[in-house]
Amino acid sequence: MLDDLKLEETLRLNILNLMLVLYDCGIKEIHLGGLMRILGVSNEVSATYDDQLVEVDEDFAKYVEAINEPRPTDQTLH
Q1: Every domain of the chain and the residues it spans
Q2: Measured on CA atoms in the order 32, 33, 37, 38, is the torsion positive or negative?
Q3: CB atoms within 10 A of CB 53
Q4: Residue 72 above 80 pLDDT?
Q5: Is residue 54 within 8 Å of 36, Cβ to Cβ?
Q6: pLDDT (tens digit, 9 = 90+) per residue, 26-49?
């Protein structure tokens, strides 16, 4: 169970960092289907999300940068 939580958090952080890279490249609207394809999800599954967008802005970028900063080991992110 603990390993699953670590894996889930690692995946979440990697997805957020990928979204930050796209934002830094000037992409402010991220198509979920395209993001899923970049992550290796099958085209068949990803296609069901092609019409969904996530808008990213400066606040999102600040949030992702903040969660990547070193923090005390007893601090938990929610």
Answers
A1: 17-68
A2: negative
A3: 14
A4: no
A5: no
A6: 999 999 999 999 989 999 999 999
Q: What are phi and psi of 55, to 5 degrees?
A: -95, 130
pTM (2 d.p.): 0.71
Q: What is the residue-wise DSSP string for 2-51?
A: HHHHHHHHHHHHHHHHHHHHHHHTT--EEEHHHHHHHTT--HHHHGGGTT
Where do we find the tokens 């930050």?
Answer: 20
Question: Cα–Cα distance between 58 and 74 in angstroms, integer?
Answer: 28
Q: In angstroms, rounded to a whole number, what is the distance separating the alpha carbons of residues 66 and 7?
A: 20
Tell me the residue type at 8.
Answer: E
DSSP bridge partners of 54? 30
